[in-house]
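User: quick one, sequence for these C-alpha cells?
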C-alpha cells in the first residue's frame, strides 16, 4: 500500500523512441463513450486493479512481481500506431514495451501517462511491468495491499482509428503475473506460457485505492 517510500516521483529513462503527451479526449472503442477529440488519451474508468494469484487486495509481503501482456499489433491502425499508457502501481513500477524500458514511477497517489510514437503494427506488442510493493515502514514489514491499474490507447492520426484496452476482466486481454524471479522477464522472446493469469481484484474507484488524481504526463526524451 502507501509505504515508506511511496512518494510522488517519476524516474524517466530515455530510449530511441520519441515520446510526448497526447491531448485530452474521451475513450472510443470498447468504452461506450463518445469521441470529443482526437487522438484520445487513456483513463481508468473501465480499468480494474490486478495482481498475481497471491491476491494483493488482501495484502502481500514487500517485494516484486512481474506481469506480461502480449497483444497483436492492430493493423487496422495502419503500418504504425502511437500507444498511450495510463498507469498507477502500488507502490512502484518499471514499464516495458517490446523489450525497451518506457519509464519508471512511484505511485504515491498519482498515475503517469506514457506515450510511445510510431510503433509498428505488423508484429505483436509485448508489454511488461515489474511492480514493487513497499513495506509500510522500516519497522513494519507486514503484508499490505498491492496492485496495478493501467489503461491503453493505440491510435493513428492517418487512419483516425483507435483501439482501447485496460487491466480488467474480459473483453480486455488477459495479463499474466508471477511472484517468481525471471531474468529478462520483459523480452519478446521469453516463454510465459506457464505463467498464471493475473487476478482482477477490484474496479477503479474501489477500496483501498479509491479515485486517483488525474494522471501526470511523463516523457522520456526532452
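Assistant:
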Amino acid at each position: 500500500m502507501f509505504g515508506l517510500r511511496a512518494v510522488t516521483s517519476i524516474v524517466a529513462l530515455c530510449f530511441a523512441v520519441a515520446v510526448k503527451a497526447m491531448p485530452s479526449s474521451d475513450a472510443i472503442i470498447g468504452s461506450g463513450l463518445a469521441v470529443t477529440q482526437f487522438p484520445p488519451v487513456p483513463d481508468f474508468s473501465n480499468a480494474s486493479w490486478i495482481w498475481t494469484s497471491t491476491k494483493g487486495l488482501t495484502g502481500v509481503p514487500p517485494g516484486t512481481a512481474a506481469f506480461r501482456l502480449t497483444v497483436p499489433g492492430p493493423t487496422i491502425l495502419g503500418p504504425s500506431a502511437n500507444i498511450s499508457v495510463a498507469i498507477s502501481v502500488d507502490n512502484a513500477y518499471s514499464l516495458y514495451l517490446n523489450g525497451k524500458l518506457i519509464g519508471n514511477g512511484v505511485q504515491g497517489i498519482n498515475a503517469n501517462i506514457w506515450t510511445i510514437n510510431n510503433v509498428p503494427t505488423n508484429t505483436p506488442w509485448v508489454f511488461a511491468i515489474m511492480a514493487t510493493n513497499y513495506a509500510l515502514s522500516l519497522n513494519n514489514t507486514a503484508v499490505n495491499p498491492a496492485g496495478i491499474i493501467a489503461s491503453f490507447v493505440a491510435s493513428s492520426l492517418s487512419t483516425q482509428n483507435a483501439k482501447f484496452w485496460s487491466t480488467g476482466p474480459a473483453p480486455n486481454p488477459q495479463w499474466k503475473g508471477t511472484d517468481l524471479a525471471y531474468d529478462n522477464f520483459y523480452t519478446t522472446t521469453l516463454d510465459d506460457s506457464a505463467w498464471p493469469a493475473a487476478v482482477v481484484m477490484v474496479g477503479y474507484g474501489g477500496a483501498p485505492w479509491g479515485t486517483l488524481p488525474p494522471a501526470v504526463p511523463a516523457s522520456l526524451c526532452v
